[in-house]
C-alpha cells in the first residue's frame, strides 16, 4: 500500500500558528510570511522559519537566509510533517542586538517514523532585518 503525498497549504489567519506560540497564524508567523512585518528578534525569525518549513513557504526561507550561506535551490519534502518546535536556549538576538543564537528542537514525522532535529542556529541583523546564517 502506498500513501499519497500531502501537499503544503497556507494556514487560515485564524488557525493556530505552526510554531505553537499560542497565537493565530495571522497574528504570529503569518504577518512575517506575508511581508507585513519583519521579525523583531532572532527567536521570532526562528519561529517564522520553522513555520515556513511546516507550510512549505520556500520563498520566505530563501528571503530570510543570509546571502553568504543561502543555497541556490531549496527543495522541501511535502511528506515531512513538522509537528512541534521547542526553543531550548537563546543568546542575544534581541531588538537592539546585531547577532543572536537560538538553540531549538524541531519534532517531525515522516510516514510512521518520528524524529527530532536539534540545532544551534546563528542569526545576524542587517539594516534592521534578521537573517539566518547557519546552524550546527
UniProtKB/TrEMBL annotation:
Residues 41-135 form the YchJ-like middle NTF2-like domain. SUPFAM superfamilies: NTF2-like. InterPro entries: NTF2-like_dom_sf (IPR032710), YchJ-like (IPR023006), YchJ-like_M (IPR048469). Pfam families: YchJ_M-like. Belongs to the UPF0225 family. This is UPF0225 protein KKR91_04190. It comes from Arthrobacter jiangjiafuii. The lineage of its organism: Bacteria, Bacillati, Actinomycetota, Actinomycetes, Micrococcales.
Amino acid at each position: 500500500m502506498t500513501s499519497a503525498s500531502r501537499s503544503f497549504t497556507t494556514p487560515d489567519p485564524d488557525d493556530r500558528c505552526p510554531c505553537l506560540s499560542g497565537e493565530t497564524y495571522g497574528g504570529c508567523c503569518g504577518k512575517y510570511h506575508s511581508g507585513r512585518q519583519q521579525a523583531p528578534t532572532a527567536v521570532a525569525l526562528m519561529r517564522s522559519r520553522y513555520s515556513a518549513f511546516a507550510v512549505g513557504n520556500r520563498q520566505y526561507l530563501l528571503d530570510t537566509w543570509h546571502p553568504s550561506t543561502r543555497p541556490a535551490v531549496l527543495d522541501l519534502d511535502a511528506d515531512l510533517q513538522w509537528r512541534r518546535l521547542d526553543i531550548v536556549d537563546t543568546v542575544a538576538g534581541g531588538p537592539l542586538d546585531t547577532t543572536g543564537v537560538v538553540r531549538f528542537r524541531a519534532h517531525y514525522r515522516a510516514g510512521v517514523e518520528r524524529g527530532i532535529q536539534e540545532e544551534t542556529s546563528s542569526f545576524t541583523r542587517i539594516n534592521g532585518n534578521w537573517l539566518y546564517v547557519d546552524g550546527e
